[in-house]
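DM from R.C. (forwarded with permission)

"hey, sorry to bug you on a friday — could you get me a structure for this? deadline for the figure draft is monday and I only need the backbone to look sensible"
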Amino acid sequence: MDEILATLMALTATEPDGAYFDALLANGQGAQVEVTHCRDPLAMTEIVGETVLCGTVTVPEDHDAPDNGQVVDLAFAILRADTSYPAADPVVYLHGGPGIGAVGGGLGFMADKFGPFRATRDVVLFDQRAAGISSGSVACREQINMNVAGVAMREIIGLDLDADGNPVVTPFLENCLEEIQADGTDLSKYNSRQNALDVPYVLTALGYESWNLYGISYGTKLTMEVMRSAPEGTRAAVIDGVAPPWIKLYDTLGLPMAESMERLVQDCAAEPACAEAYPELGRVLAEVLAKTKAGELVMDGTTIPANFVGGLFNERNTFHHPNSITAYFPAIIYELHRGGEAPTLEMVAGDWGFNRPGQTAADVLAARKDALTETQHKLLGLALKDAEIIAAAESSLGVAVAELRGQLHRDKALGPMPGLFDAELSAALPGRVTTQEEGRALLRDYAALRSGTPSRGRLSDFVRAHFDGPVLARLLAIVDAMTEAEVAAVFAFVAEEVQTHTLEFQQNSIDLMLYACQEDMPFNSREGYDATTAALPYDTSGFYDDSALLVYGTCQAFEPVPREGWHEVVESDIPTVSIGSGWDIQTAASWAEEAVRGLTNAQHFFIAEAGHGALAYADCVGDMTAAFINDPTRQLDDSCEKERAVGPFYIAPWVATEAAE
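My reply, with the result:
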C-alpha cells in the first residue's frame, strides 16, 4: 500500500524528482538529447522522470559522413536501477524485427522481464533507425494517409498478384519510396552496420561509458554486428533467439519450425509412455501436414486449412506462459490424423489461444482434495478466493492508474481547451461513425492532419466534414476559443495518436522491408527458399509460402545493397551467452550454437520449454543472464536448462480405450 500511495503522490506532483537522470545526462557526450514524455503502457509504479526517462537522441544518418546534414532521431527509454548504488554499465536491450521497436509500447512488459538486471543496473532501450518511434526519417506520410484504412498486409505494403498468381508491386510502395527519398533520405544507410554504429553513439550521449547488450531476434544479429563493427564499450553480451548474420534467413523461413517439429518427435520417442501411446509420431505428423496441404483433412465436416498445423506450433511459440503445453501436442497430432473428434485439442485451445488445463482455482481445489484435511481444504478455498479478489483489484487499480496517467499527460501536453476538444471529439465518435465507410473516411482525414501546416482553418474544416448539429457547434466553439499555440498542440497530439494507434503497423511493415530487401535479399532468393523448404524433414510450406511470396515479391521495389563481409562469421572475444529455445519457430535453436563458432569467450544454452526470446518465457533465463552480466567471467551451470526441460507427455484417455479394443 505504501508503494501505491507513493506512486499516486508522485504521479500527481507538479514536477518529479529528476536528480538521478539529470546527473546521468550531464555526463553525456557527442549527440543531442531531448527529453520527452513516455508513451503508455508503463508499469503501474513507474514515475516518469524519477524511475523512467524517455526522449530522443539525434544521430547521423551516415556515420561515415556525419556532417552531410541528414540525421535520424532515435527514441530511447531508461529504466532506472532499483538500487541507490547501481553498476555504471547498463543492460541495453536491442529489439527484434527489424522495424518493431520497443519504446512505443510495452515498457511495463520490458520492466518486468528485465527486473533481474534492474536490481543492480539501469536498463536502456531504444528504437533503432527505421523502427517503432524512430521511423520518422523513413515515413511516407502522404501515401500512408491515403491508405490508412487498409487492413491487409498486401494493401499496406503495396503487393498484388497478376492473373497468373505472380507478385506485382503496386504503385503505393513505389510512391512511398519516392516520397521518402524526396526528403533527401538515403535508404541505403538503413542497415545493420549503421545501426551498430548508433549503439555507442546513443549510450555515450546518455552518459554511459560502458554497457552490456541483450539482443533478441534481429537484436541478436545487431548485437553480433556491434561486436564486429563497434565493439568499444561493450562489456558483455547475451543473444537470445539467435539469427546469425551469415544465415540465409529468408531462404530458411521454414527451417526453425521443422526443427521444432523434429525435436517434439524425438522427445516423444525418448519417453517410453509417449512412444508407446503415439508410435511413429514423425510419420503421422508428416502425413497430417500432407493432408492439410492437399485439403484432404476434414474434422467435424470442416476442411482443415493448409497452415493449421503450423499455426499450432506458432501459437505455442507466442504463448507467453510459464506452463508448457508441449505435453499435449502428440495427442493433438494423432487426433488430427484420425479425423473426427479432437478432445485434446478442444481441451487446450480456447478462443484466445492455448489454455493449459489444471490452472484454475477450481482445478487446484480438486487436485488437493484428497491430500488435505477438511479444515485445510476449506482454508485453501478461502485463500484462493482472496487471491482472486486481490488479482481483480490489482487489475482495476492498473486500469485506473493508466487512465490517470493518460489524463495528466493530455492536460499537460495540450492545456485545458485542447484537452476539452479531444474529450468532446472522443465522446462524439461512437454516435457519429455508424458504417465502415464513414469510419474509413474519418480516419483518413484525421490522419491527414499530421501532415502540412497546423492551422485553425484546417481543424475547423475537419470538424465540419464529419460532424453536425450540437456536436459541431461545440467543437467549432472550442476551436475558435483556442490560441495559435493550442491549435498547434492539437495537431501535435493528433500526429502522436495516429502514429501510436493506427499507423505503426503499416510503417513497421515498410521498415522491415527496408532491411530485408536491401540487406538480406542479395543473399537469398525465391529459388533458394523453394529448394531449402523442399529438403526439410517436415513440409512447412503450407505455413510459410504466403510469407515467402510477400517478401520476395515486395523486394522487387527495392535496390539490393550488398555489403562486403556482412555474411561472414563474426569473431570476437567479448564474453557472450547464446540461447536457443525448443518452441522457437522464428530462429532455429541450432543457430544459437552456430553463432558461437567465432566467439572465443561464449557459453551456449538450450532452453527446451521456451519460445522465441527465452527471457519472455522462463524466469530462470533472467536470473541466469543477470548473474552472467554481474560477472561475465562466471561459468554458468545447467540449472535453467534442467528447470525448463520437457516434462511427461499427456496420454489421452482414448489411448487406453483403443488399446483395450
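R.C.: lifesaver. The chain is about 50% helix and 10% strand.
me: no worries. Confidence is low (pLDDT under 50) at residues 150-154.
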